[in-house]
Amino acid sequence: MSVEGRTRWLALVVLCCGNLMIVLDVTIVGVALPGLLLSAVGLALFARAPVGGNFALDVLPSMILLGIGAGMALNPVLLAAISDVDQSEVGLASGAVNTSFMLGGALGLAILASLAASRTGGLLGSGAGTAIALNGGYHIAFLVGAAFAAAGALLGAALLRTGAPTAAHDTAEPAARPSATPAVAASCA
After folding, report:
1. What are the φ and ψ backbone dihedral angles of 124, each rounded to 5 degrees?
2. What is the span of the domain harbouring residue 149?
3. How many domains does the chain have?
4. Quick check: is 97 in a domain?
5. Domain presence at residue 8
6. How far apart are CA 39 and CA 4, in angstroms?
7. Widest CA span of the chain, in angstroms?
8. Is the dihedral of CA 41, 44, 46, 49 positive or negative?
9. Residues 6+ apart with CB under 8 A from 27
10. What's this model's pTM, rounded to 2 decimal places?
11. What are the pLDDT digits (tens) for 166-176?
12. Which segments of the chain does DSSP mark as H helices, in order?
């Protein structure tokens, strides 16, 4: 499949997920937190992969959990970040959140790669083979990544509101609540 085809599928999935949350009236917390926890479990499972592991047993379950978890968590986290922003400033808030996503990903990757390299170097210095040392370095990176995802879920559970919208949003009429168009809802079913 071409890059253009994959981009179209990704756009359809993002559109459907956002509209599905609206149609089902699912809370942001009810989707994002389980997604972060699934991501944490997927990363923790990667941390147990042996040197001569099997793809179906040691990689695929982790990738499935990580993919589903990240897919569940990213859009609701963006929605939570811009939910209390005035309509006139939503674009600015969305840009700031997307920039934070990019910087956070770059910083997180730098931290995890540094931890992996340090652990790998330590194991090589103690006489471990290259494959065992690399595996040990990746294990520590995946464990720390899992801890970050779990901490994000715990912080989200503690800090995100699950109740009604704030007073700034209560002025809109109930009929003005966004909903999926019938065509979009049908394409997502």
Report:
1. -65, -40
2. 27-83+90-165
3. 1
4. yes
5. no
6. 27
7. 69
8. negative
9. 162
10. 0.71
11. 444 444 444 44
12. 3-24, 28-46, 60-82, 90-125, 130-159, 182-188
Q: Which amino acid is at 109?
A: L
The structure tokens 């253009």 sit at: 4
Cα first-last separation, the chain: 23
Give dist(CA 76, CA 18) in Å, integer: 8
Give the position of tokens 């982790």.
62
Model confidence over 116-152: pLDDT tens digits? 999 999 999 999 999 999 999 999 999 999 999 999 9
Separation between Cα atoms, residue 61 and residue 128, nearest integer Å = 28
| Integer Cα distance of 102 and 97 in angstroms | 9
Answer whether 25's CB lies under 8 Å from 164's CB: no
Does 68 map to a domain?
Answer: yes
In the numeric block, the tokens 């995100």 are attached to: 160
Fill in the amino acid letter for 25: D
Q: Does residue 178 belong to any structural domain of this protein?
A: no
The length of the chain is 189
DSSP state of 165: P
Non-local (6+) Cβ contacts of 93 within 8 A are 81, 82, 85
- Cβ atoms of 142 and 114 within 8 Å: the answer is no
Q: How far apart are CA 78 and CA 32, in angstroms?
A: 10
Spatial distance between the Cα atoms of 181 and 33, rounded to a whole number of angstroms? 27
